[in-house]
Design brief:
Elements lengths: L1 H7 L2 H20 L9 H33 L3 H23 L7 H29 L2 E2 L2 H25 L7 H22 L26 H18 L1 H24 L1 H11 L4 H11 L1 H12 L3 H30 L9 H19 L2 E2 L1 H18 L2
Antiparallel strand pairs: 1-2
Helix pairs in contact: 2-3, 2-9, 3-4, 3-9, 3-12, 4-9, 4-13, 5-11, 5-12, 5-13, 5-14, 5-15, 6-13, 6-14, 7-13, 9-11, 10-11, 12-13, 14-15
Length: about 400
């Protein structure tokens, strides 16, 4: 076990941890020095330093995530990275809600920004990269269909329904409880099926990545899932030490990324305010930084032609973000008696609906291409335009 730990906790990994947590500690110690308004040179220096540390830590997260993915296989490997980032993000949003001040729209703004980034920018870039390098690529349509079904339902519950049946963009108290139960219930059922009977639905099916014998027919999915379940238990049993250490290292490396991203929000707001940029742009930038490790991992998977892994990472992150964030903030709202505004503006609802429709049509095809990716990027660009409108 000692040898395994030493091979994982390399000097590079330790340097990343020291830089990440050291930068966070420095921000805490700086305190009022970095409280807005901050002098221009100091503001720019602080932002460059923070982004630099985040990039260094992000590559460390990607390194560990890829090792875990190779060891555990999909969907388990992708799920580890997705849940670690999303859970930390949910905890931080909850901390803001429980803190002083009014933050009624923080969940809506954060989840909307993440939704457009994942479904528009990241998916679009990955399909463009994969399509240009490998041509058309086959994906597991059963797995992607499962993701998109949940994304559509959860997005409607989160952003559209409150505007129709709620008050001032918020669910009424008696409506929140069934929404919480339904959201948690469908998300838990999804995870149970994804890691059990339907695990085979999330494996690569492109012939260039799998041998013909390994691509099981849909009618045999139950048998394949049973075999895979037995396989993951054996893998965890045989490599328990490595998996635990890598998982711990991944979490301790990704945590400073999220903490630094939220700490730099006030600096970014200050800087964008001086430039006359819209306030909503700050949320988009923060969301981009928080999901940077997953974005890098997705692009690397696309470069290797692993289009189903791209779906597992991106669509899985979207399902987890909405499925965990919405019930958490609604529950906090109930316990603290504060309004939680979830209803989106008509413009954002239209763009989200277009993005979801585009996602369905893109992945309904047997193979995805670079043109599909370009279409997703155009919708994200339009979302950027609406931020300045």
């Amino acid at each position: 076990m000692t040898a395994a730990v030493r091979s994982i906790l390399t000097p590079t990994a330790i340097i990343r941890l020291v830089l990440g947590w050291g930068a966070f500690a420095a921000l805490l110690l700086a305190g009022s020095l970095l409280a807005p308004p901050v002098a221009g040179p100091l503001l720019v220096t602080a932002l460059i330093a923070i982004v630099g540390v985040i990039l260094i830590c992000a590559f460390g997260v990607v390194h560990e995530a890829e090792h875990l993915a190779r060891r555990l296989g999909d969907p388990y490997g992708s799920l580890v990275l997705t849940l670690s980032i999303v859970l930390i993000e949910v905890v931080l949003i909850a901390a803001v809600l429980l803190g002083p001040g009014e933050h009624a729209t923080i969940a809506r703004d954060s989840v909307m920004a993440v939704s457009m980034i994942i479904l528009g920018a990241v998916i679009g870039l990955c399909l463009l990269v994969a399509g240009l390098r490998h041509g058309s690529l086959a994906h597991n349509r059963m797995g992607v269909s499962t993701y998109l079904s949940l994304i559509i339902v959860l997005a409607a519950l989160a952003f559209a329904l409150p505007a129709l049946i709620g008050t001032n963009g918020s669910y009424q108290t008696w409506q929140e409880i069934p929404i919480i139960v339904l959201t948690i219930g469908i998300y838990a059922f999804f995870l149970y099926r994804q890691m059990g009977a339907q695990a085979a639905d999330f494996h690569e099916v492109d012939p260039r990545l799998t041998k013909p014998a390994e691509v099981a027919p849909e009618s045999a999915s139950t048998t394949v899932a049973t075999t895979q379940k037995q396989g993951i238990v054996a893998i965890i049993s045989a490599h328990r030490a490595e998996i635990i250490v890598r998982l711990a290292l991944l979490i301790t490396t990704v945590t400073p990324i999220v903490l630094l991203s939220h700490d730099m929000a006030s600096l970014l707001d200050d800087g964008l305010g001086r430039l006359g940029a819209p306030v909503a742009l700050s949320g988009v930038v923060i969301a981009l930084i928080v999901f940077l490790p997953e974005t890098i991992t997705s692009i690397r998977a696309a470069w290797q032609g692993e289009i189903q892994r791209v779906s597992n990472l991106c669509h899985g992150a979207q399902v987890s973000t909405v499925g965990l964030t919405i019930p958490t903030v609604l529950l906090i709202g109930l316990l603290t008696d504060q309004p939680i505004v979830l209803a989106e503006s008509p413009a954002n609802l239209l763009l989200l609906a277009v993005t979801l429709l585009l996602s369905v049509t893109t992945f309904a095809a047997k193979k995805v291409t670079a043109v599909h990716g370009a279409a997703h990027l155009v919708v994200f660009a339009i979302f950027g335009i609406t931020l300045f409108s």
